[in-house]
Design a protein that fits this description.
single chain, about 160 residues, mainly alpha, two-stranded antiparallel ribbon, about 70% helix, about 5% strand, flat
């Protein structure tokens, strides 16, 4: 009997002292979450339009195409869709949101780095520094920092 009272007291104390998950996400991440939520929702619609012959410009992490049904186009639409799922998970405070965000940011950093290094390796002269990397690094670090608090916090 004593053990159950202790568990209830611990849960109640955690509930009082823990922050809500939305409070753990800084404003600058929330801005990008909303942007990528919209772009992620548009990705399947864009894919459908492209099947019917529509072409449009896609670009992310230094990769770009105006052919959505090309290999790069499908990869980019998939990345936007993943970013949309991540954004939805963060906004709705899903338990797995931070883990997916960490995977998303590591994938973004890897692709961004590849797009900067590949032209150097392939002896092309048109390499450029990707500004996305300046946001991906703090995004990853912030998600790692709040991961434990997220897992121990309460949903709204």
């Amino acid at each position: 009997m004593q053990h159950n009272q202790t568990d209830l007291l611990t849960k109640e104390l955690l509930h009082i002292t823990s922050k809500k998950r939305k409070q753990l996400i800084p404003w600058w991440i929330k801005v990008f979450v909303w942007i990528f939520l919209i772009l992620g929702a548009a990705a399947p619609i864009a894919l459908i339009f492209s099947v019917f012959g529509a072409n449009f410009q896609l670009a992310l992490y230094g990769f770009e195409t105006d052919q959505p049904l090309s290999t790069i186009g499908i990869i980019l639409l998939t990345l936007f869709f993943i970013k949309g799922i991540t954004s939805f998970a963060l906004l709705t405070e899903k338990d797995w949101a931070i883990k997916l965000g960490i995977v998303d940011s590591i994938l973004g950093l890897a692709l961004c780095t590849f797009s900067m290094v590949y032209p150097l390796i392939s002896m092309k002269t048109n390499t450029s520094f990707r500004l996305e990397i300046l946001l991906l690094i703090p995004y990853l670090l912030k998600l790692i920092k709040i991961k434990s608090d997220w897992e121990n916090s309460i949903e709204e």
